[in-house]
């Protein structure tokens, strides 16, 4: 792929500002034979189609809410499109408007993490990504976009972002702060022996007293098995599993006293076919869960898995027996 990868932010105040930067970007791709995608709102789709006229036939339109539904799956799917286009001697070109509305602080951080890691994951694909950010978004979201995108687009002009940060350093900074402590009423299961069967039974008993769908329960069990196996193989005792509910979420946490020294994103980038099994495991866990939070240091390692459960109250379902396994 002769073209260099580019990842730019397009801040805008009004729709005209977005069009001033987006239209030249899209037209360049149409004329160059790229695979061109516009991932925005329905209202912006209509404006873009009107301005592009007949050229709109060369653009594939997608809805932002669906495209940006899950961080790891979004990264995997878009990366697959970029690699396929590169194999076809074409370039993937995406105008994207990330869906920030209704996301809480933890979700926003995870999507900012994805924006940063995109610069490492797509480096060899030759793709061109232009991310539109409305200035009506929270100030922290707009400011972070200048740290996660090497360049800013204004109209036809492109300027380097002096605040841009190396993606791995950016991710390390996100993970430098502690997670909120588990609640006092969390169900706590000390893991003294490697009996994965009873661990899965324990998680199943808890989850089935919540509205968690059966498919999501199966995903949770696979993710928990992977994380507990990693703790047993590579961590240090004591190892514990905790379960609790938060508004709209089921949370499962695995802790041990080991300290991970791996500093390449803890499974944030899809592994290559020849990649190591450990990296694949963490990547799979990210695909299976709504959100994965990892903290590691001298005091030990915490892996916190979150699955969305709409309507779930922040109270325990019932008392479960607390026995070591």
Automatic annotation (TrEMBL):
This protein's UniProt keywords: Kinase, Serine/threonine-protein kinase, Transferase
Keyword Transferase: yes
A GO molecular function held by the record: protein serine/threonine kinase activity
Any Pfam family matching the protein: MEDS
Recorded superkingdom: Bacteria
Domain (MEDS): residue spans on this chain: 7-150
Domain named Histidine kinase/HSP90-like ATPase: residues: 198-306
Keyword Kinase part of the UniProt annotation: yes
Protein name stated in the entry: Sensor histidine kinase
Organism, as annotated: Actinomadura logoneensis
